[in-house]
Design goal:
Blueprint lengths: L20 E2 L7 E5 L2 H4 L5 E7 L11 E4 L2 E8 L1 E6 L3 E6 L3 E3 L6 E6 L4 E7 L4 E4 L2
Antiparallel strand pairs: 1-2, 2-3, 3-10, 4-11, 5-8, 5-10, 6-7, 6-9
InterPro entries: Cupin_2, RmlC-like_jellyroll, RmlC_Cupin_sf
Organism: Undibacterium arcticum
Protein name: Cupin domain-containing protein
Length: 132
């Protein structure tokens, strides 16, 4: 029998506060609300709400991938469209959820003006690689 150990975790609660949405993250067209998961899990995971703060432009479309163990995205509001390696273009609407396997190459191809996503990633610190 394999025993799985988990990192020390702390109890945390994150209530909605509009001031918690910050820019300057991975994408210039988004603001992020950190939900405190990285701190509570000692970096084992992270979770944040992402708001699209600029209208979609093709200049934002860059093929890339994330060096992660796990990535889940859930559409809270609006819609979000990406093209995924081997799976084509997918339009995710409010209530849609998807998992991006480690290192799957993808390109963002659109979003609604009111788009808001919940993203959960393991581990908290990871690399995003822009494909050339």
């Amino acid at each position: 029998m394999t025993v799985v150990t988990s990192p020390n975790q702390q109890f945390t609660v994150s209530h909605l506060n509009e001031d918690d949405f910050k820019t300057g993250g991975l994408r210039s067209y988004s603001s992020y609300r950190d939900l405190g998961v990285a701190m509570a899990t000692n970096g084992a995971a992270t979770a944040h709400v992402i708001r699209m703060i600029a209208p979609f432009s093709e200049s934002f479309s860059q093929r890339h991938h994330h060096d992660v163990q796990f990535q889940l995205i859930y559409v809270l509001k609006g819609w979000f469209k990406s093209e995924f390696e081997g799976h084509g273009v997918q339009t995710m609407k409010e209530g849609s959820c998807w998992i991006q396997p480690p290192n799957i190459r993808h390109t963002v191809v659109g979003w609604s003006d009111d788009c808001e996503l919940l993203e959960v990633i393991l581990p908290a610190e990871h690399e995003t690689v822009v494909d050339e």
